[in-house]
Amino acid sequence: MTAPLLDLPSHLRRRLVGALETGQLGAPYSAMAVRNALGGAGEAGCVRDELQGLHDRGIHGTAVAYAIKLAAQAALSVSRPDLVWSGPEVRGLHARDTRPVFEELVSGAQTSLWISSYAYYDGPKAFELLARQMDSKPGLQATLFAQHQARLGGRLAGR
User: Fold this and answer.
1) Do 143 and 85 belong to one domain?
2) Same structural domain for residues 71 and 127?
3) 9: domain range?
4) For a designed S-S bond to 25, which of 19, 94, 100, 149 qualifies (C-beta 3.0 to 4.6 A apart)?
C-alpha cells in the first residue's frame, strides 16, 4: 500500500473502498473511473496508477479495499499529541488559562510530555509538579522548550 491511496482524506478513502468492494471500480483502471469513484476530488491520476500497479502484481480491488481499511484502523490506534493554546484572554481568540492546563497535562502524562513556553511563572511550583509526576512514572520522558535570555553588560546576548 503506498502513499497515493493512504494520503487521500478519510472521506475519499471510504469512497474508494466502497467502489472497490462493490465492483463499481475495477481493472483496468481509468483516470475517469477513479475520478468518478472519488466524486471528482483527489489525485485521480496517481490513485489510478497505484491501483493499476497493484492489479498488475496480482492484488485485486477487494484486497486493496481491505488493506486500505486495515491501514485506516491502524492509524486510529496511533496516539496523537494534544496541542493546547493557553495564555491571557484575548477577545475573539479561544485560549485556556495556562496554569490549570499545565497542571492537567503534567498530571495526566504517561509516556511523553513536550512543553514549549516563552516564560514560566512560579517556575519552582511548575517544575515541582513535573518532578513528582516523573518520579511516579519512571518511563515518562519530558522535553522542555523555553526562551532563555542571557544578559551581558546590560545588553541582551545574541541580538
Assistant:
1) yes
2) no
3) 3-76
4) 19
Question: Does some domain include residue 40?
Answer: yes
| 3-state SS string for 58-113 | CCCHHHHHHHHHHHHHHHHCCCCCCCCCECCCECCECCECHHHHHHHHHHHCCCEE
The number of domains in the chain is 2
Q: Is residue 155 part of a domain?
A: no
Query: pLDDT tens per residue, the chain (159 residues)?
Result: 468 888 888 889 999 999 999 999 999 999 999 999 998 876 788 999 999 999 999 999 999 999 999 998 888 777 776 666 676 667 777 777 778 888 888 888 888 888 887 777 777 887 898 999 999 998 999 998 877 666 555 554 544
